[in-house]
Predict the structure.
Amino acid sequence: MDQSILISVVVPAHNEEKRIGQLLKSLANQKAGFPFEVIVVDNASSDRTATIAREAGVRVLFEKQKGYSYPVIRGCAATRGEIICLTDADVRAPNDWLKKIKRAYEENPDAAGIGGIFYYYDGSEFLNFLLRVAYTISPKLIIAEMNGTNMSFRKTAYEKVGGFAYGVNLSSETLLARKLRATGRILIKKDIMVYTSARRFASFGRTFKELLRRGINALSIKLRGKVVFNSFEDIRS
């Protein structure tokens, strides 16, 4: 491992040319004060996703097997940092995002993984209100253990538990967090925040379906250690 790299940010991306530029700009503007790398894993895109990422000066890998687990496994295997962060191509990160993650690990040396929260930059006020209520009651109501929109873990812990489950594409982050608990604490920090797109929640029907499937998966993982639903819908509008 290259010890000069402290944090590696992995971004799986399928046909994200309309949004990934904003994410990469927000990562380039990080006031980290320490070395970090950004790895975009182009997941069988047919648009300019990879080109935009290369033009932004980040590492670009390719994964032909479409899904979620495949590109994140590919990306995590290529990381050089002590801490691996995951986020999505439609996210916008505040310029202190990585600094707060680093500080959280320094303050919690027994933590195997640390997750954050998110709000929608293009969602309704009501949708963000529901998130605030959920985070007040318990972050786990929305993000279960950790969510790929805003999560991180120590690479040593990740490798010790065997990483992401190959072929599990929905709720794979929750499944990984369950395994990571065997090596250390999993924390959800409300001050580690990003903004993401609400495109998956553009209608009541879509919102209900998304939350129901993820909720059932979270319960199944806690009780049986496996998911019920494994696929997700591609939404780019």
Remarks:
- The beta strands are 7-13, 36-42, 59-62, 83-86, 111-120, 151-154, 185-196.
- The mean pLDDT is 85.
